[in-house]
Amino acid sequence: MKKPQYLILVCNSYRVAGDAQGACNKKGATSLLQYIAEEASDRGLDVVVTTTACLNVCSQGPVVVVQPNNFWYGGVTGEDVIDEILDALENDECCEKYSIAD
Q: 48 is in which domain, residue-wise?
């Protein structure tokens, strides 16, 4: 298997009991998955997009993490935000506007 250049993690608020209860899920994080995957592909970015369990920063949700860069983004609420994040990723840079981590 060829390892992708980036792994994009979208918090889906799954808890130990399996219930998606947190802020990210309630704010529509799962609706972003298809757009992220398609837009990244259209841009020629080598990414895999997947959901995660709760990332424990609910107040910042929806949360998206780009690995291996360890870029953490909060308030990822729509396609325009995703576009800005992917614009920065094309240059292997962090989109400071939505960054929630130092």
A: 6-98
The domain total for the chain is 1
- Contact predicate 13/26, CB 8 Å: yes
Task: Specify the 3-state DSSP secondary structure of 42.
Answer: helix
DSSP-derived 3-state class of residue 97: helix
Q: With contact defined as beta carbons under 8 Å apart, do 63 and 24 qualify?
A: yes
The per-residue pLDDT for range 44-67, each reduced to its tens digit, is: 999 999 999 889 898 999 999 999
Whether the bond into 4 is cis, omega within 30 of 0? no
CB 56 within 8 A of CB 15: no
Looking at residue 26, its pLDDT comes to: 86
The CATH number for 12's domain is 3.40.30.10
E-strand stretches of 1-102: 6-14, 47-53, 64-67, 71-73
